[in-house]
């Protein structure tokens, strides 16, 4: 796949979220590839999200990713873009594809936020990957958490 191209057609996004002392200080990490005309075609983001559970952080990473892609390429271009979300969270992916029920009210509201973002894209696919295939996004989460612990811990 050549990430430098004129036509945007597919973005691959690696997402991760984590919390220390679950629930506790939490952060997200997102790696977006396949959009823009950068030589590498890859953008990395991390963000401290305050106090949350691991599962809430995983969901918040997906929300952040979908909103960020739309912001980067614009609403009109996003309608022609296929998005593949990759995460190592079994719970997240299986809830997003309808295999697992969502009992937690906070996760339900985050699920609906993601669901309401899906029509902004041509297609959104959710894929579970092994933890070792998501190391870069995990590193972003842990770097952000380490920075916050250094500031507030």
From TrEMBL:
Residue limits of the RNase H type-1 domain? 7-146
TM annotation in the entry: none
Q: Name one GO molecular function term.
A: nucleic acid binding
- Name one matching Pfam family: RVT_3
Tell me the InterPro entries matching this sequence: RNaseH-like_sf (IPR012337), RNaseH_domain (IPR002156), RNaseH_sf (IPR036397)
Q: Which PANTHER family match?
A: POLYNUCLEOTIDYL TRANSFERASE, RIBONUCLEASE H-LIKE SUPERFAMILY PROTEIN, RIBONUCLEASE HI
Q: What is this protein called?
A: RNase H type-1 domain-containing protein
């Amino acid at each position: 796949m050549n990430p430098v191209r004129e036509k945007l057609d597919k973005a691959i996004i690696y997402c991760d979220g984590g919390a220390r002392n679950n629930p506790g200080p939490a952060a997200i990490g997102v790696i977006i590839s396949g959009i823009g005309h950068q030589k590498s075609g890859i953008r990395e983001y991390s963000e401290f999200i305050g106090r949350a559970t691991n599962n809430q952080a995983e969901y918040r990473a997906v929300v952040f990713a979908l909103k960020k892609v739309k912001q980067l390429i614009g609403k009109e271009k996003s309608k022609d873009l296929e998005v593949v979300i990759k995460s190592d969270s079994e719970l997240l992916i299986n809830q997003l594809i309808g295999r697992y029920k969502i009992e937690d009210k906070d996760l339900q509201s985050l699920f609906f936020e993601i669901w309401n973002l899906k029509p902004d894209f041509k297609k959104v696919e959710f894929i579970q990957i092994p933890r070792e295939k998501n190391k870069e996004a995990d590193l972003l989460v842990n770097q952000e958490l380490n920075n916050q612990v250094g500031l507030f811990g």
